UniProtKB/TrEMBL annotation:
<feature type="domain" description="Sialidase">
    <location>
        <begin position="40"/>
        <end position="303"/>
    </location>
</feature>
<dbReference type="InterPro" id="IPR036278">
    <property type="entry name" value="Sialidase_sf"/>
</dbReference>
<protein>
    <recommendedName>
        <fullName>Sialidase domain-containing protein</fullName>
    </recommendedName>
</protein>
<dbReference type="InterPro" id="IPR011040">
    <property type="entry name" value="Sialidase"/>
</dbReference>
<dbReference type="Pfam" id="PF13088">
    <property type="entry name" value="BNR_2"/>
</dbReference>
Length: 370
């Protein structure tokens, strides 16, 4: 079994003068580039669901030990109020691809989710591209979804497959009025032309009874060519979290298996396959406080857990809430959304947002796995 050791930690971004103005940071995404530089995206705004939450870019030239904030990904909209969230991925020939969901914030006194029915604000799905290591970005390209959401969740960066196709994991989400013709289900848009079009999608996880919602889903292409997907599962009728669920597909052409339990109780999980074939999962644990790492393996299609490792916040209280209204639970979260990046030296770089001393920072941890 792989063991995990945290060898260093630090801050990617923290408001330098929180006594002067309110700036909080959330939802990081980190890449290491071919030359060794690292680039991070994250949102900065007045609050967790603030209308002024916008994507910013930071850069590191020392393996993620220190970071310089470079500014916003793009100037934003001038004709209407919008907020946005971003995830970064590698494209072809050194290109960086930023997947952005832009939220309509005309309801300036409301959050992103409707507390009456868990509906979501109207969204646009966008791609930005950079060919100069994230220093400049293209104009936004609109992604036309291959099914009606009507809204969609920001859950994952684009996943480039080894055969050149791209997958975009996401979940359908009710509109603000509750309209949701396909139910709330995990899907993955598919593109065969480097994101220029997304004509089809994969059904990944869905509860045909309409009770279980699959959030924060991720997909990993395993070394043997199979696809592994996992998600935070929430039973809306019972108002409770279920163990994280996973499914396996033999290839992008084959259907996914039925959802099964990982045995992990958590939210906002992320995962990667390690060199020995095991699976590293980092997630916000709900049966114990804090951010945890888990090492597991797939025995055929059976998920087998081998070890749990605390990473951050194990002695802190009040990090999550378990009220019956999930929209209210979103509003009081204090950390989450880990991003995983394998560095050239073999270590794993974990970034996540965390509220400390009343300020939400972007934190990083460097893990030695082996």
């Amino acid at each position: 079994m792989s063991a995990i050791e945290c060898i260093s930690s630090g801050i990617i971004y923290r408001n330098p003068i929180p006594h002067v103005y309110s700036k909080h940071a959330y939802f990081p995404s980190v890449l290491q580039l071919e030359g060794g530089e690292m680039i991070a995206s994250f949102g900065i705004g007045q609050a967790f669901e603030a209308p002024d939450l916008h994507t910013h870019i930071a850069r590191s030239t020392d393996q993620g030990e220190t970071w310089t904030l470079e500014g916003r990904l793009y100037p934003g909209t001038t004709d209407r109020i919008t907020s946005d969230a971003c995830r970064l991925s590698h494209g072809e020939n050194g290109e960086i691809v930023a997947f952005v969901i832009r939220h309509d914030r005309k309801r300036i006194d409301e959050g992103l989710a409707n507390p009456e029915n868990l509906g979501f604000v109207e969204v646009e799905l966008l791609l930005f591209r950079s060919r100069d290591a994230g220093r400049t970005w293209s104009a936004p390209e609109t992604i036309e979804p291959p099914l009606t959401g009507p809204s969609f969740e920001m859950t994952s960066p684009i996943v480039p497959l080894r055969d050149g196709r791209w997958l975009l994991p996401t979940s359908t989400w009710r509109g603000w009025d509750g309209y949701c013709p396909n139910g709330m289900r995990m899907v993955a848009f598919a593109s065969a032309d480097q994101g220029k079009s997304w004509p089809s999608y994969l059904d990944v996880m869905a509860d045909e009874n309409g009770s279980v919602i699959y959030w924060e889903s991720k997909i990993v292409e395993l070394e043997d060519g199979r696809l592994l997907a996992a998600a935070w599962a929430y039973d809306e009728r019972e108002s409770k979290d279920l163990p994280n669920q996973y499914v396996v597909s033999q290839s992008v052409e084959e259907p996914f298996s039925e959802p099964r339990s990982t045995g992990l109780f958590g939210q906002t999980l992320n995962m990667m396959q390690l060199d020995d074939g095991s699976i590293l999962t980092v997630y916000r644990r709900i049966d114990e406080p804090g951010l945890w790492a888990n090492v597991s393996r797939l025995d055929g299609v059976e998920w087998v857990n081998e070890g749990q490792f605390p990473l951050w916040g194990q002695r802190m209280g009040g990090l999550t809430s378990q009220n019956v209204n999930m929209a209210d639970n979103f509003a009081v979260l204090k950390f989450g959304a880990p991003s995983l990046c394998r560095l050239a030296d073999g270590t794993v770089y974990v970034s996540f947002w965390a509220v400390e001393d009343g300020v939400s920072n972007i934190r990083w941890l460097k893990l030695r796995v082996g």
